[in-house]
Amino acid sequence: MSFRGPTMLALSLAVVLASAGGVGFISAAVAQPAAAENKQPDALAAYNSALSRFKSILRERRAQIDAKQALPNLPGQAVYLARNDVISSYKDLTDAQPSRIGRSNKFGMPPAYFDADNEPLIDEYLKVFEVMQAPPANAQNSATPIKDVADLARAIARAKGLDAANAEIAARISVGMFYAETNGYQNIGNARSNKYKGSYQTGVPEDQSGQRKWAAIKSSIAAFDPQLIARDDKEEARAGSMDRRYNHWTGVRNGLMNAHAELFTQIPGIVKTLPDPIDQMKFFELIQIVPSPTKSALRSGNLLAYRISDPTVMGYLRNNSVFTFGKSDRARTSATMREIMDGMWLFNKKFETALSKYEETKTR
């Protein structure tokens, strides 16, 4: 997959550089608190304005949905940007006024970025997106969506030569990708893009590439797992001439083959560097978002210290909720892979859920 980003860039925020004013130790020390005090009313006003806009667009979309009105093209984009603006402006507010940092929240967002009193707004945000991204009427669900992801990944990894233990890690990581892309929903559309669809959120070229790669590996899988290939034949017949992205099995299969399978052989080394299962999922998600620099980092021999400074790549990271929120984060011009993975905190809850679901499926 090429560099990944939604159709519209996330809301840009200008970086404000404050001048200390005056010369010498005493004047600088006096000027800095004064500058911070001056920023506080502006930061609070910006946050209140962003919060009001977010509430307004949520009400608008809910009214349109309840009235069964036609939604605009990319109906989720304005909602997404408004949410980002709330998080960004709250981070700016807590930077100016650290005493505003409050309690933890159920979404796992750092308290400096999110006021827990706004949890109901994010609940509504998720519900609105669930409607806007609902699968098409002809989508073909699976009764065992998590197991399907794990079974396919495990078989692909074994075909790539991994032993049973590392193939199991591939299965776990792949469940994480399912949650990263869709929060565990099958066959969904995309309220922010007309390109990416399905359980693994692929475009048509990526889906077709994955299908070709699957055809090349299928016979080797049949040699050790004929039951999985029988299931595959059944799903292919079921899908017929429809878009393969809207059959959960084929959509996941093609997504895995397109973006992840080639890296399965390097899982032993990745796990040695990244023993935390959540970090492993983050690394593979970066293969989705910025594949070329992520692969370069892996080849470098010092993955965690590898530094990315290309403005375009930094833009794609911001486009995908990494260094996205607040002026201080957006001012970054470079970051190491360790810093990038630490900055992927918005993915933490998804990957924790994926890990739990994977363990449940494995137990069954």
Question: Overview of this structure, please?
Answer:
The structure is a single chain. With 364 residues, the protein is mostly helical. Helix content is 62%, strand content 1%. Helix 5 packs across helix 11 (277-289), helix 5 (164-182) crosses helix 16 (348-363) and helix 11 crosses helix 12 (291-299). Mean pLDDT is 90; it is low at 5-31.
List keywords for this structure.
364 residues; mainly alpha; 2 domains; two-stranded antiparallel ribbon; 2 strands
Structural class: mainly alpha
Mean pLDDT: 90
Report the oligomer.
single chain
**So what's the overall shape?**
globular
Rg from alpha-carbon coordinates: 22 Å
What order do the SSEs take from the amino end to the carboxyl end, as H and E? HHHHHHHHHHHHEHHEHH
Distance between the termini: 33 Å
- Estimate the strand proportion: under 5%
The parts where pLDDT drops under 50 for at least 5 residues are: 5-31
Placed side by side, the strands forming the largest sheet appear as 1-2
Q: Enumerate how many helices there are, as a single number.
A: 16
The percent of residues in helical segments reads: 55-70%
Using DSSP, what is the number of strands? 2
Largest sheet: 2 strands, antiparallel
